[in-house]
Amino acid sequence: MPYSLDDLNSMDRAAFVAALGAVFEESPWVAEAAWDKRPFADAASLRAVMTDIVRNAGTERQRALILSHPDLADRASRPATLTAFSQTEQAKAGLNELTDEEAQEQRDLNRAYRDRFGFPFIMAVRFSSKPEILAAMRERVANDPEVEFGRALEEIYKIAGFRLDDLVEFPPSSPS
């Protein structure tokens, strides 16, 4: 059952972190810091606060957040540790139904990407197909490391937004 904005605004710190701690992959520190910024007027303010916390966290903490994400479709090396969110997101994108050839290309691209950048390829895959994901990997592995670090964070912000949409029942926006 999704939480209401009123529920979140009235929760104590522990309950708030329990509710939203998984929004940023294995990084409950984001929800912990967001609790101090309550009350949230709407969905946009909650998203903005959580995103700003990561944006202002510094490179070391941002890198740790990026490294907390799994390699896409790499069930062989991380099946037991894949979070429920990641399992669902990857399954909806068809990444648990790769052909042998697609799985091999995915592993090769994951390895090349990690070798080049030192962190996993991150993409908000919720509305992407297997071919779109593979094409993005092929393209992004050639990026400049600084550009790709920023891109990884932007993808994480998208993923967190999708997860918030799943966890929080936001009231409809009023017409302007």
UniProtKB/TrEMBL annotation:
Domain Oxo-4-hydroxy-4-carboxy-5-ureidoimidazoline decarboxylase: 9-165
Catalytic activity, EC: 4.1.1.97
MF annotations from Gene Ontology: 2-oxo-4-hydroxy-4-carboxy-5-ureidoimidazoline decarboxylase activity
Coiled coil: none
Pathway of action: Purine metabolism; urate degradation; (S)-allantoin from urate: step 3/3
Name the UniProt record assigns to this protein: 2-oxo-4-hydroxy-4-carboxy-5-ureidoimidazoline decarboxylase
Catalytic activity: 5-hydroxy-2-oxo-4-ureido-2,5-dihydro-1H-imidazole-5-carboxylate + H(+) = (S)-allantoin + CO2
Keyword terms: Decarboxylase, Lyase, Plasmid, Purine metabolism
Gene Ontology BP terms: allantoin metabolic process; purine nucleobase metabolic process; urate catabolic process
